[in-house]
Amino acid sequence: MQRVAVITGASQGLGLELARSLAADGWSLVIDARRAEVLDEAVAAIEAVAGHGAKVSAVAGDVADAGHRAHLADAARAAGTVRLVVNNASTLGATPLPALVDLDAATYLRTLEVNLVAPVALIGALADQLGDGATIVNVSSDAAVEPYDHWGGYGSSKAALDHASMILAEEHPAWRVLAVDPGDLDTELHRAAFPGEDLSDLPGPEVAVPGLRRLIDGAMPSGRYRAQELVR
Ligand SMILES: NC(=O)c1ccc[n+]([C@@H]2O[C@H](COP(=O)([O-])OP(=O)(O)OC[C@H]3O[C@@H](n4cnc5c(N)ncnc54)[C@H](OP(=O)(O)O)[C@@H]3O)[C@@H](O)[C@H]2O)c1
């Protein structure tokens, strides 16, 4: 059976770089993002490097939508055996980032829905396809552990995702559940947090991929990791 990875938010940034790396090694992929035209371009970029037998299924949609998550699960079932789920899609909430007391409740709820509830619910939608040894990567952030001012909404959603990852690992010892901080990267999400600032001194998202691949391909146990430290 073809091994399959489900990666959310793989139209650009870290998700796209990881998708290209896995496809080059023959993984079939089920990927998503909301902007369909950007997702189509990503499929072409992934297929250009895909190894023998690797197929890419793209489903445009919002991870916070239960119907969309069911479509991802259907696409995964059709593609083969799910060995890897990467919950990568995230939102900052409002930008510029407001102080926590100024964060309106609707934006905070949306941040928690996308960054915390949707990743857990996607694992639920895929649970009957996740056999022993399946790997779950929940993409975290240093903002989950460091109290950066104005990052409270996003940071608390990622802190809660770290905690949910530990709970999932306890409840499903047959899975490896990895919460992974990719480190600072020059991406659209990061640039949106610092409007008007030049972040080009930061590395591109590809620098986090070797550490992620070490975790995915290796046997390190469930836990929290920093991707870039794994390859120093
Ligand atoms: N960049 C950094 O420095 C940094 C640092 C620490 C952690 N991270 C984490 O790394 C991960 C990847 O972020 P990135 O920096 O690569 O960001 P990015 O370049 O902005 O990519 C985000 C991806 O997620 C998709 N996405 C966003 N919201 C979505 C939703 N509701 N449903 C489906 N897809 C959605 C985006 O496409 P659409 O907009 O078209 O949906 C895009 O494909 C995130 O979990 C982020 O929190 C990043």
Description:
- The structure is a single chain.
- The chain has 232 residues and is an alpha/beta fold.
- The chain has a single domain (3-231), classed as NAD(P)-binding Rossmann-like Domain (Rossmann fold).
- The protein has helices spanning 13-24, 36-47, 66-79, 105-126, 152-171, 188-193, 209-217; strands at 3-7, 28-33, 56-60, 81-87, 135-139, 176-181, 223-226.
- It has a seven-stranded parallel beta sheet with strand order 3-2-1-4-5-6-7, with helices on both faces.
- It is globular.
- The chain binds NADP nicotinamide-adenine-dinucleotide phosphate.
- NADP nicotinamide-adenine-dinucleotide phosphate binds at residues 8-9, 11-15, 32-35, 38, 62-64, 88-91, 114, 139, 141, 182, 184-185, 187-190, 205.
pLDDT averaged over residues: 98
Q: How many individual helices?
A: 7
Q: Largest sheet, order of strands side by side?
A: 3-2-1-4-5-6-7
Radius of gyration: 17 Å
Give, in order, the helices and strands.
EHEHEHEHEHEHHE
How far the N terminus sits from the C terminus, by CA atoms, comes to 35 Å
Uncertain segments are: none
CATH architecture label: 3-Layer(aba) Sandwich
CATH class category = Alpha Beta
What's the domain count? 1
SSE-based structural type: alpha/beta
Percentage of residues in strands: 15-25%
Instruction: Report the CATH superfamily.
Output: NAD(P)-binding Rossmann-like Domain
What ions, cofactors and ligands are bound? NADP nicotinamide-adenine-dinucleotide phosphate
**Amount of helix:** 40-55%
CATH topology group: Rossmann fold
